[in-house]
């Protein structure tokens, strides 16, 4: 059974991938910043993420974190560049011609 945990802004999460590799992200106010770091062992020093490039910011259901599938392994200050979130593209799965752009910073 996975460990229950809260979604905490600033927390670093470890994402277990196939073949024993790990990726890392940071919980933002809205979304997860995923870093360009793909390693075969658990990261021992999360401060390395301060200089890691971000691959993308993605929205995920909270249960990926709250159910412990993605473990929180520490916390870092949120980079200034992550304070202003990118626009979101939202497309209707039933009617793909229906879509909108949404600014998560102002709603």
3D structure, described in words:
This protein has 107 residues and is mostly beta strands. The protein has 1 helix and 7 strands; from the N terminus they run ββββαβββ. The strands form 2 sheets. It has a 5-stranded antiparallel beta sheet with strand order 4-3-2-1-5, with no helix packed on it. A two-stranded antiparallel ribbon has the order 6-7. The longest helix has 4 residues, at 63-66. The relative contact order is 0.23. The model has no long low-confidence stretch (mean pLDDT 90).
Task: For this entry, give a set of tags.
4% helix, mainly beta
In short:
This protein is mainly β and 107 residues long. The protein has 1 helix and 7 strands.
Taking the sheet with the most strands, its summary is: 5 strands, antiparallel
The arrangement of helices and strands along the chain is EEEEHEEE
Radius of gyration: 15 Å
Low-confidence stretches: none
Report the end-to-end length measured between terminal Cα atoms: 36 Å
State the shape: globular
Tally the beta strands: 7
Instruction: Determine the mean pLDDT.
Output: 90
Widest sheet: strand ordering: 4-3-2-1-5
Instruction: Assign the structural class, choosing from mainly alpha, mainly beta, alpha/beta, alpha+beta, or little secondary structure.
Output: mainly beta
SS field, number of helical segments: 1
